[in-house]
Amino acid sequence: MKIINSLLIITLLSLSLSAKELEIPGTLPVGDAGVGKGLVAQCAACHGASGVSSNSDWPNLAGQGEQYLFSQLKYFQTGERENVLMMAVIPYLKTLTDSQLQDIAAFYSAQSASVGQAKDNQELLARGEWLYRAGDPKKGIPACTACHGLAGNGLNQAGFPAVSGQQINYLQTTLKDYRSNARNAGNYASVMQAVAINLSDSDIEAVANYMHGLYLQ
Ligand code: HEC
Ligand code: HEC
Questions:
Q1: Mean pLDDT for the stretch of residues 38-56
Q2: 182 lines ligand 1 (CB under 6 A)
Q3: What angle do CA 14, 171, 70 make, to 5 degrees?
Q4: Which residues lie with the beta carbon below 6 Å from any ligand 2 atom?
Q5: C-alpha radius of gyration, the chain, whole number
């Protein structure tokens, strides 16, 4: 964790944020995927029975980091993160304890992530890969790999989400929501707001296309 923490701090400093603003977790709770499986009947309509959603606007949850999933469930439960479609399940989420939310997070995290197919447009792919791997220092855009990893698997311990294979429309919408500060739940949202503020619509289109098709063997 030491190396991870200092990497995180260096990256955050380069984004002019202090590590103090973020909670860097120590030992993390782990949920029970078996219990979680019994708590997600209402979620399948949009997120699929095993966390792979059927619509490009709705995020996949399968294979996502458990700590990230838990944090987002908590934000939806408390109303810090809002979405019209998720609204339908907020009354239900409010009846669940933190330990049950952790179980749901463990369930989706244990499912196999889906792999997407990027649009076969060489120029778009090249721009997306470049942005993802190197950022664009002139525009103040950091490399996404610094926190989401070369393969897009994120970093569960730090609560950094996986982005590989994520639904393409969702990726675009959520990056635009960070850019406009509409997505602002929790301490970590400010990290992504600082990243997204310098992304143009065409940068977002390119990097979302790359992440959707991203997988390394
Ligand atoms: C009617 C459709 C719908 C249902 C039912 C639904 N969701 Fe969602 N969910 C969404 C959409 C759309 C988003 C994206 C929200 C946004 O853009 O902020 C989302 C986002 C999420 C996220 C955040 C994903 C991320 O990558 O940040 C989690 C976690 C989640 N839902 C869990 C659940 C759980 C657990 C249930 C069942 C209790 C559920 N959802 C039911 C549509 C739905
Ligand atoms: C300093 C670390 C850091 C860097 C650099 C970074 N991210 Fe993130 N990213 C995060 C964190 C932390 C979150 C979770 C924020 C939250 O809780 O809302 C996140 C969330 C996201 C999400 C939302 C995932 C979901 O399921 O909703 C996307 C998409 C994303 N980042 C894309 C990118 C892209 C594209 C880049 C590069 C241009 C990038 N990130 C650079 C740390 C980083």
A1: 97
A2: no
A3: 80
A4: 11-12, 15, 59, 71, 131, 141-142, 144, 146-148, 160-161, 163, 166, 171, 174-175, 186, 188-189, 191-192, 195, 207
A5: 17
Which contacts qualify for 169-176: CB closer than 8 Å, 24 or more apart? 169/56, 169/57, 170/56, 170/57, 170/58, 170/59, 171/207, 171/208, 171/211, 171/212, 172/204, 172/205, 172/208, 173/57, 174/59, 175/199, 175/204, 175/207, 175/208, 176/201, 176/204
142: CB partners within 8 A, 6+ apart = 11, 14, 15, 135, 195
Q: Kindly identify the ligand whose nearest atom is closest to the C-alpha of 92.
A: 1
What is the distance of C-alpha 32 from the center of its chain? 21
Q: Is the pLDDT of residue 14 over 60?
A: no
Q: How far is the CA of 168 from the centre of ligand 2 (A)?
A: 15
Please state, for a pLDDT cut of 90, what percent of the chain lies above it.
83
Hey, whose CA ends up nearest to atom 33 of ligand 1? 43
Nearest listed ligand to the Cα of residue 142: 2
Among 72, 77, 104, residue whose Cα is nearest residue 90: 77
Q: Ligand 2: distance of its center to the CA of 18 in Å?
A: 17
Q: What is the pLDDT of residue 5?
A: 45
